[in-house]
Amino acid sequence: MDPRNTPGYRLHRSLTNLKRIETAGLDDADQERIEAARSLLQDVSLLSQPEHSGDADTQVEF
Measuring CA to CA, which of 26, 31, 38, 55 is 20 to 30 A from 18? Predict the structure, then answer.
């Protein structure tokens, strides 16, 4: 199985791509959307791989 077809890989790639977007030239609404997407992907990443969060007591609140 190709590791690029796993959900964790796709999540990582999506988050990496969002972090590379230069938001300085975007309008406020687009900047807010990108920040919200980054935040949501980071939350999902913590939930899907809690052992890699670096802190065993980390909790994500919704």
Answer: 55
**Identity of the residue numbered 31:** Q
CA distance 62 to 21: 26
pTM for the whole structure: 0.59
In residues, how long is the chain?
62
CA dist 7 → 1, 13, 19, 41 (Å):
12, 10, 18, 12
pLDDT-flagged residues of the chain (< 50): 53, 56, 60, 62
Sequence-ordered list of residues with C-beta below 8 angstroms from that of 52, at least 6 positions apart, any chain? none
